[in-house]
Design a protein that fits this description.
Number of helices: 16
Strand content: under 5%
Distance between the termini: 38 Å
Shape: globular
Order of helices and strands: HEHHHHHEHHHHHHHHHH
């Protein structure tokens, strides 16, 4: 018995990737570089290998953060963190990830391996990178263990969910003039570089003080937020803009297909529900110093949340490539609901948590949540890859001779 039903597997052969990229930076600056860069890779290298290489570089960045600051920042602005030169490696690593993530599709067309498996694998790696970069960027911005870091996690995950939701309903991946995979990543790279030069404390300076606008009368009426918090406010406006643009695209596609355009909006609620569960867990009252946001459990909690999110959007992408119903419920939420309810028992019934009654018990439970989240997502990846490769007769990390000689390969290939 496979993970994907037989009738859904049959839809894989009907799938074809469609994408729109309106980014000026991508078109005139990065794409010429990517087109050259992909030619450096032998045809014997599978596109998924390139994708996985990029994610591995991001993991290296993440582990360097843990090496120099194993407990993460004790509070906002509360620790020195890694040496400044490390942030330059993060910038280089993220640029490498962006480049490798961009050329895997080009390599797939070069080798005749373009198809639904590459779409699944690419988006799966992107989903994990989203959480890792949210943590790293919050560290570079000197946000530390704070609700601003939580807000950063929610905003980045929301943007990714929104893009996947839009692709499911429109049938194409739409990247606007300013998108997360292009301009968003470049913005984070710039943050790493600035932090490398001036250190994380640079971002605690007031925005109007740095820009020397604080003496302008109407500016004085505005809150003079630190640079890091100002960046988060800017991100909130960016998220709102993306929501409007994505819905406009979905509404246009639904009207063209003669389908109701309001129903897709209800499918945004699964993300709201999932995020609300995690926020409720984080909002637990302080009991025996076990509050997650004030403890070393903060990073493993965010990682577990990210893995659960990757499982959620992974099922959405699978539904897209197999033309099946949009997944609304994810059973892994049950575990997080238990954790959130238990942590908030002092609010609910006025008694101490049962499971997370002490700091030690809370630590065990959160790390167990991380392990379970990893196993659930790893199981999903293995089973889906196994089903797709077996049904389509392809390999995940190997380029076969029949791929190179297949109908997808053309002598006049243009990356």
């Amino acid at each position: 018995m496979g993970y994907i039903p037989q009738q859904s597997l049959e839809n894989l052969k009907k799938y074809s990737y469609k994408g729109v990229d309106k980014s000026i930076v991508s078109r005139y600056v990065l794409n010429p570089f990517w087109t050259w860069f992909v030619t450096l890779w032998p045809l014997s290298v599978a596109p998924n290998t390139i994708t996985l290489t990029g994610l591995t570089i991001v993991f290296i960045n993440f582990f360097t953060m843990l090496y120099y600051d194993p407990l993460y920042l004790t509070e906002k602005g509360g620790a020195t963190g890694p040496p400044n030169w490390i942030y330059f490696t993060w910038a280089l690593g993220l640029f490498a990830y962006q480049s490798l993530d961009a050329i895997d599709g080009k390599q797939a067309r070069r080798t005749g391996m373009a198809g639904p498996l590459g779409e699944m694998f690419d988006h799966g790696c992107d989903a994990m990178n989203t959480t890792l970069e949210a943590i790293l960027a919050s560290h570079a911005l000197n946000l530390g263990r704070s609700w601003w870091t939580v807000a950063s996690q929610i905003a980045t995950l929301a943007n990714f969910y929104l893009t996947t939701w839009e692709e499911y309903h429109t049938g194409q991946l739409y990247l606007g003039i300013c998108s997360g995979p292009v301009e968003g990543i470049l913005m984070i790279i710039i943050i790493y570089i600035i932090t490398g030069f001036f250190g994380p404390s640079f971002w605690d300076q007031k925005i109007f003080t740095v820009t020397r606008l604080e003496h302008i009368p109407f500016i004085q009426k505005l809150p003079n937020l630190p640079l890091n918090e100002s960046f988060m406010v800017f991100g909130a406006f960016g998220l709102a803009f993306n929501i409007i643009c994505s819905y406009a695209n979905v509404r246009r596609a639904m009207k063209a297909a003669g389908k109701p355009h309001l129903r897709p909006l209800t499918l945004l609620f699964p993300f709201v529900i999932a995020a609300s569960i995690q926020v409720a867990w984080l909002s637990q009252p302080e009991v025996n110093h076990s509050a997650i946001i004030n403890s070393p459990n903060f990073v493993p909690f965010l990682c577990a949340w990210g893995l659960q999110f990757a499982h959620q959007v992974g099922r959405m992408i699978l539904a897209h490539v197999t033309s099946t119903a949009f997944p609304v419920w994810d059973w892994v939420w049950i575990w997080s609901i238990i954790g959130a309810v238990d942590a908030n028992l002092p609010h609910i019934i006025g008694r101490a948590p049962i499971i997370q009654s002490t700091m030690r018990n809370a630590t065990i439970f959160i790390w167990l949540t991380l392990v379970i989240s990893f196993v659930v997502y790893a199981r999903f990846c293995v089973l889906v890859i196994n089903d797709i490769t077996n049904y389509l007769g392809i390999a995940c990390f190997t380029v076969r001779k029949k791929d190179l000689d297949g109908v997808w390969r053309h002598k006049d290939f243009k990356a």
